[in-house]
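Box 4.2: Ligand-aware structure prediction
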Amino acid sequence: MSNTNKKTFYITTPIYYPSGNLHIGHFYATTIAWVLKNYKKKMNYDVKFLTGSDEHGQKIEKKAKENNMEPQNYVDIQTDKFIQLWKKTKIDYDFFSRTTNIQHKEIVEKIFNKLLEKQLIYKDKYKGLYSINDEEFILETQAIKIDDQYYHPVSKHKLEIVEEESYFFKISKFSSWLVDYVEKNNNFIIPKTIWKELKNNFLNNNLEDLSVTRISFEWGIKVKKDPKHVIYVWLDALFNYISALGFDFENPKNDFVKYWKNGDEIVHLIGKEISRFHCIYWPIFLHALDIKLPTTILAHGWIITPEGKMSKSKGNVINPLDLLEKYDSEIIKYFFVSKLNIVKDGIFSEKLLLETYNADLVNTIGNLISRTISMIKQNFSKPIVFKDIDDDLNKNTLNLIVKSFENYKENLDNFRILESFECILNLARNLNKYIDLTMPWKLKDDLDKLSIILNILLNGCYAILAMIEIVCPDYVKEFKQIFNINEFDFEQINNFHKFDNIVVNENKIVFSKFKQ
Ligand code: ME8
């Protein structure tokens, strides 16, 4: 298929604050988006993947000051650490979006002006509560109050009382449009519980107009005509998703036209705590500017440790760099996608990581492949050709290969990542059982029968490796050499003749056991 006929898929992660080092939660989120990108690529989509850093705002200004640095210098150093982390974790992306990029800043200025022109923004006074850490305005009714001090209801960060001149966006004008839109577009917000909560907490409570500028600090994009005002960091940050593609009101760049305006699927992966910004403000901003909306906002849960939520005070924040000293990044990524249900909070521990690696990759998948390849090498020097034999066990096993792939796709197309990986493991377990049932080691004198079994196993291993490649491409590369093939293609899974002319190479242990 020519490139121009392919469907497009654009997926983004949140752009992370460079006010601290990235932890395992950021690695988790970026992995999910990266795996979905890899899946769509194997499904023959034309894909783009964005990650980046959210570099303006009061929090960053404060952090830079604490470090005796100019904010720009501070974010340059911090952002470089992100880039190094993604290199180490072998996560490749198409865009690394930085809100301090000149192109982004110009677009945000234009957007603000456009909203002013459209009379959707007006000047007034803001009086209320603000969390610098979350860069979020909080209603007094929603804040937690202890001894005259207010706290954020979810993150529990301290809130400041802010009273200052501010520009406001007429968000309330759009709340019934939003409710209508989300309820008509069933897959716009996943999971649905997120929408229910937002509706109860904000939309049913009269959405208040949103303060979109601050005057008490400097670090951000200034309002051109009124430069004491700095544009609210979330208005600035959200637009990175299209500024990186080259959005402009007139003459947008090709990437914007191709992957957004005329694009097929646009997915924002976010943590659940930032769903208010992505599921309420973002669609409203876009709609107000007559810009197309993304197709899906996929909110994931948090990684927690066996002792509960990670926090600096508990000292249980997991640094991905420490893990990467001990484990290949693909082992960690495999754990994230195969053991954590993205729409819930999930526990990570090194113990669970090792158990998963040994049970799934070493003992189930690795063992299946080793047994298959070794038996082939022991008994055949020529290719083993597929024969369609009318035998229930063989037929069922071939059907299982086809069915597992169908289920895997169905799950991934609906972002049920954990379930899709269960399809792979289930197939591997069943193929191991098939070996136990057929006992090929007893068939050395019946090479015809043996070749039928081993060919089915080869086809099964192929399907497993094709499916698992979206999370561990480097391990799968090693199997390409063993299987003597260039690619594990999805298109070839159902073609059982693919090994008819191939002599596989000697077996090699790819997943070797980790000692605990
Ligand atoms: O919110 N478990 O940036 P941020 C899983 N700059 N994921 C986690 C996590 C955890 N324990 N902790 C963080 C921001 N994350 C804004 C985003 S987008 C226009 C602006 C992940 O550095 C999760 O995806 O605080 C969460 O939403 C994101 O990191 C927040 O990163």
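In the box above, the bound molecule is ME8. The two ends are 48 Å apart (CA to CA).
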